[in-house]
Write a sequence for this structure.
């Protein structure tokens, strides 16, 4: 099937077009620069930017894919979770398209889409795998039997998301927003063993109750304290080393727990998705440790890890291929859509 997917949950206006599991177009317009001076995404600014970018981005995707809207078999859109006003713009646009073209509409879960996007690179998602979702707002370990049916949460962060920790530490280090990519870059020239920052929820006692959960807030505070102490003493802060040591702590915990989750379920496949999956150290460490553990690891290329429309189209395509019934045209934007709900019915 030929599917167009629309993503507007945060600050990226994404429109992707896929045929089956083949990516034909992935047009993204970002308002990230408009938010940078505020140090975080401003919802009203994001909504307005989506409104302005929506039609041109749909047009650009259709041109790139070489398809006419009338060729499409279905429209998919992020129904949630995300910023309410931002989601609304995408949902309204998708409804308009579906109604005018008389095509089915699929209101999908943004988080499940971060997982489903991997089909565009590596084909069918194995029946029985752990998906680690690490993004700006979420950090979860999910057991996946069939992504078109649902996911089962095994654990999640009890405070900050991994991406949030990257962004906050970046701010402490004086790096631009959003910080993840800048920390990644700075860390390349740093010494990962320069300081040993704490690994949240990995003590024997914590593991009893939080075996598959994460905590990054203590790590962030620990980095901030370390940096403050240096500044108080009038010493230079070795940004590269701190970035590398912080990144090492995050990736160490993520990969350890993800592999443990696979072992717990007897799954031989780990799939990693979400913006933080673009992190070069996480990718390298996951490959290294999974290989050692006899687990096959799949991570989409970095450009597909951060928010985009292709991921929404990819999930829509999986749902259509599985014969799942579409959403009603009265589909709401659900800013707190639970991770267990793949499709808004
Ligand atoms: P969610 O998917 O939970 O709704 P979101 O859509 O805002 O949140 P994504 O776009 O999936 O999040 O991911 C953005 C996050 O990924 C940001 O926190 C960003 O700093 C982080 N990120 C992006 N690239 C990298 C990288 N190379 N290393 C670490 N973090 C990164
Ligand atoms: Mg973004
Ligand atoms: Fe996201």
């Amino acid at each position: 099937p030929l599917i167009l997917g629309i993503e507007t949950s945060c600050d990226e206006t994404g429109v992707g077009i896929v045929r089956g599991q083949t990516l034909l177009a992935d047009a993204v317009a970002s308002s990230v620069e408009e938010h940078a001076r505020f140090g975080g995404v401003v919802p009203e600014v994001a909504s307005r930017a989506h409104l302005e970018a929506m039609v041109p981005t749909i047009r650009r995707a259709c041109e790139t894919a070489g398809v006419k809207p009338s060729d499409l078999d279905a429209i998919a859109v992020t129904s949630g979770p995300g910023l309410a006003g931002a989601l609304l713009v995408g949902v309204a646009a998708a409804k308009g398209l579906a109604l005018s073209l008389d095509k089915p509409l699929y209101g999908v879960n943004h988080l499940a889409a971060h997982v489903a996007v991997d089909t565009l690179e590596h084909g069918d998602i194995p029946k029985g795998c752990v998906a680690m979702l690490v993004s700006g707002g979420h950090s979860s370990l999910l057991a996946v039997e069939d992504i078109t049916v649902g996911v089962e949460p095994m654990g999640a962060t009890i405070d900050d998301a991994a991406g949030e920790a990257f962004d906050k530490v970046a701010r402490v280090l004086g790096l631009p927003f959003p910080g993840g990519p800048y920390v990644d870059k700075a860390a390349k020239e740093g010494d990962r063993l320069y300081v040993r920052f704490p690994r949240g929820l990995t003590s024997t006692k914590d593991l009893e109750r939080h075996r598959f959960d994460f905590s990054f807030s203590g790590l962030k505070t620990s980095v901030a304290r370390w940096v403050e102490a240096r500044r108080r003493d009038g010493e230079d802060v070795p940004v590269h080393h701190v970035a590398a040591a912080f990144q090492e702590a995050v990736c160490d915990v993520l990969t350890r727990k993800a592999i443990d989750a696979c072992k717990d379920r007897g799954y031989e496949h780990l799939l990693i998705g979400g913006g933080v999956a673009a992190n070069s150290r996480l990718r390298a460490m996951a490959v290294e440790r999974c290989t050692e553990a006899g687990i096959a690891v799949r991570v989409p290329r970095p450009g597909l890890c951060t928010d985009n429309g292709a991921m929404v189209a990819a999930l829509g395509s999986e749902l259509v291929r599985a014969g799942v019934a579409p959403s009603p045209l009265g589909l709401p934007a659900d800013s707190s859509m639970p991770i267990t709900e793949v499709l808004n019915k």
Summary: Residues 16 and 310 are 4 Å apart (CA to CA).
